[in-house]
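Pasting as-is:
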Amino acid sequence: MEYKKILVKGVNWVGDAVFITPALSALRSGFPKAKISLLIPEKVAEIYQGNPDIDELVAYQRKEGLREKIELIRTLRKKKFDLGIIMQSTSYGPAVLFYLTRIPERVGYSHSLRNLLLTKVVKRSKGTQHEVDFFLGLVKSLGIKVEKKKVFMAEDGEAKEWAGNFLIENGYKENHPLVGIFPGAYFGPAKRWFTERYATLADRLIKNYRARVILFGEKNDFPLVQKFIDKMTVNLINAIGKTSLKQLRALIERCHLFITNDSGPLQIASTTKTPIIALFGSSDPKKTGPWRDEECTIIYKKVSCSPCFKRKCKKLTCFEEISVEDILQIAKTYLSREQ
């Protein structure tokens, strides 16, 4: 069946926002003549700007009141979509929204009473599945053959220019390798390797490779980052709370190596060619690992309790097993060719 207007309800988190891009690409291949609109929270909209698989972005604030939600329903009704796809696997809100918007065909994963609001209920695959494949499952349920699975975030000229100026303003010179570090993880501390070890790692990278280290994070990461900075013996480039998502990507693209926990920035880095070292603790790299094989190393010590998917943990045995030396050995592979 052909569809003229398709509305996709996207996801709320940066990492997941990157993970659905192969599904959007497959949807475009399956329905090349359709107008594809993507409904997403404003905070992740930049990920999709410049994406050729999307015709229209409909961005909203997640904490909108009743009046704004009613207005959104009216706006979407006027667009007369004939197919709605809900990427969120368990949320009731999007199903209610699509029902009230009067989209005749509504597709989503099976979840309890939410199924009553869907016209096509998709069963989940058994066993561990990467999130990219999970989202692709919804598109496959429409009979679309998936030929490629690359994650995507468009380059942005203004962001690249900003990144170049930012590095110059912070005294970066091209004859030094640039290493990016993201020590945070919005989900919780159980996904964060130890701040003091990150600080030691940064010091060693600067000493061993004459590297410049650039620190990434959101504004709410300031307390975590201050501990990081306090434990360091040399200066670094502080980009905490100073970048948009486009600018973050542009800076990561300038790095010779990017070291990070399982996080949204990890998935943004996966859309570049920058070498990655990704540290996993409570989460499972088989589900949320970077969707890239080349120039990418995952460090994951599969202890008996991992993956536990907890936000907090008093022991953090999974991260205790990851040493500074473990990362330095891998970093050597990437940075020695820059010397």
